[in-house]
Amino acid sequence: MFKRLSTDTLNWILIVGVILFILEITFFQGGMIIPALFFALLIYIGRQNFEKLWGKLFFWSGIIGIIFSILNMLAIRFFVVAAIAIFLINYSKSKKVAKWVEPHLNSHPKQEVKENLIHKHPFFDHRFFDDQRTDDTAYQWRDVNIHGAFGDRVIDLSNTVLPNDTAVISIRHLVGNIEIYVPYDVEVSIHHSSVIGRALIFGNYHERIMNQALLYQTKDYDTSFPRVKIITSIISGDIEVKRT
């Protein structure tokens, strides 16, 4: 069912669920969180004393209680309704349209000598809610090391001159898509991990990634320069790496 759903739609469902969870904690005195924690404690105590009758009662009472507590959370209700709606929509579409798959310490420390350093501004700042991309004009290369929460990240290496060494792109992200464009004469190593999403890496298409890690590198990466090492980690989103 979820294979037909775009990653952007899944991202929106996840975002709304997180917002509902935060609202329940903030405005409803914890909502069903506190009862769920109480029943979890009952499960723990009952599991530690499961050989006794009262331990069994604690354990199974906690199991039943925590199930009802979780099902009564606003976020869980929303996910259930969303799953039913997605199922009905996909079922309706499957009756009309055929399925298509397309890739898209010292007490007397020594006095430190102050060195002359050059302060450079990185390509990207750490932003939790925003889309980011490299400049469309020529720019001087600097390694990328960023993290974020929501939004897309686009890095185009065709407008820069990479050093005759290993350039590094490291992105840690929660929800959003990542696009990286690499020139044809650059060797590449890609290590991507994702909980939910899709991947299109130099024509190699992964329709659905579920808590997986992907590792690719071009044939001459170990011996040729320039080269770029790409390390990405994302909770929910797509990644696309292609030549330009």
Uncertain ranges: none
Rounded to the nearest angstrom, the radius of gyration is: 25 Å
The coarse overall form would be elongated
Please trace the helix and strand order, writing H or E for each element. Answer: HHHHEEEEEEEEEEE
Q: How would you sum up the major sheet?
A: 9 strands, mixed
Mean pLDDT: 77
How many domains? 2
Figure out the total of helices: 4
Which structural category do the helix and sheet elements fall into? alpha/beta
- Report the β-strand fraction as a percent range: 25-35%
Number of strands: 11
Helicity range: 25-40%
Distance between the termini: 34 Å
Describe this structure as you would to a colleague.
The protein is an alpha/beta fold. It folds into two domains: 93 residues, no CATH class; 112 residues, no CATH class. Helix content is 32%, strand content 30%. It has four helices and eleven strands. Strands 1, 3, 4, 6, 7, 8, 9, 10 and 11 form a nine-stranded mixed β-sheet that branches. Strand 8 and strand 9 form a beta hairpin. Helix 1 runs antiparallel to helix 4 and helix 2 runs antiparallel to helix 3. The protein starts with 6 loop residues before the first helix and ends with a strand.
Provide key terms for this protein.
single chain, alpha/beta, two-stranded parallel ribbon, 244 residues, 2 domains, 4 helices, nine-stranded mixed β-sheet, 11 strands, elongated
Short description:
With about 240 residues, this protein is an alpha/beta fold.
Helix-strand layout with pairing:
Layout: H1 7-27, H2 33-48, H3 53-71, H4 74-94, E1 132-133, E2 139-140, E3 144-147, E4 153-156, E5 160-161, E6 166-175, E7 178-182, E8 187-201, E9 204-217, E10 227-236, E11 239-243
Parallel strand pairs: 1-4, 2-5, 3-6, 4-7, 6-10, 7-11, 8-10, 8-11
Antiparallel strand pairs: 8-9
